[in-house]
Amino acid sequence: MRAALIIGMTLAATGVAEAGPVFDRLTGSSVRTDPCFARAYDADHLARNPRQRVVRFHLVRARVDVADENRPQRFTVRVGFRLRNDRDVYETNAICTGNGTLADCSGEGDTGVFRVILAGEALRVEVERLEVEGRRGSSPDLARSDDRVFLLRPAAAAACAAG
Questions:
Q1: Based on the number of CB atoms within 10 Å of its own CB, is 59 exposed (0-12), middle (13-18) or buried (19 or more)?
Q2: For residue 7, is it within any domain?
Q3: I want to staple 101 with a disulfide (CB 3.0 to 4.6 A). Which of 10, 50, 90, 118 is the partner?
Q4: Domain count, the chain
Q5: What is the CATH number of the domain that holds 72?
């Protein structure tokens, strides 16, 4: 009994026991039902925030063929966004390490680093650096403008549709 208590306390202290909440929020019951989280900014919001470049941002879990990247402690997401006066969609996959109510993510191909945090029914995305390729070129680093924090709410799957 005492050994089980010590093991349980150790797991809780290291975050292993809580590794799944962000993963759980991003995981649907099948490949077709993974929840989409997105935000589209209206003209009024953009007028009040002239340094903000992003007009839309989305995040969805990306199920991949690598078994080690489909579990609560390590999983893949796809993020994408559009910028003002730019028709291109910038998207990348990122590998996330889950730790309780947050996950630290690194974009593939050194596209950036960001954190996903549970925020009620929403997800808060905090960008440290994010520069992503689109069809016509690369985006600027979002962290160099007012595009460092996004509060994403559950959205229709179409809001997270690829490119």
A1: buried
A2: no
A3: 118
A4: 1
A5: 2.40.128
Q: List residues bridging with 59 in a β-sheet.
A: 37, 79
Q: Given 3-state DSSP classes, what are the helix, strand and coil percentages for the chain, each rounded to the nearest 5?
A: 25, 40, 30
To the nearest whole percent, how much of the chain has pLDDT over 70? 83
Claim: this prediction has a pTM higher than 0.70: yes
Look at residue 50 and tell me if it is in a domain.
yes
User: What ranges in 15-158 are assigned the alpha helix state H?
Assistant: 21-26, 43-48
User: What is the secondary structure of 109-130 as a DSSP string?
Assistant: GG-EEEEEEEETTEEEEEEEEE
Side chain identity at residue 130, one-letter code: L
User: Residue 2: its pLDDT value, please?
Assistant: 41
**Per-residue pLDDT tens for 72-103?**
899 999 999 999 999 999 999 999 999 989 99
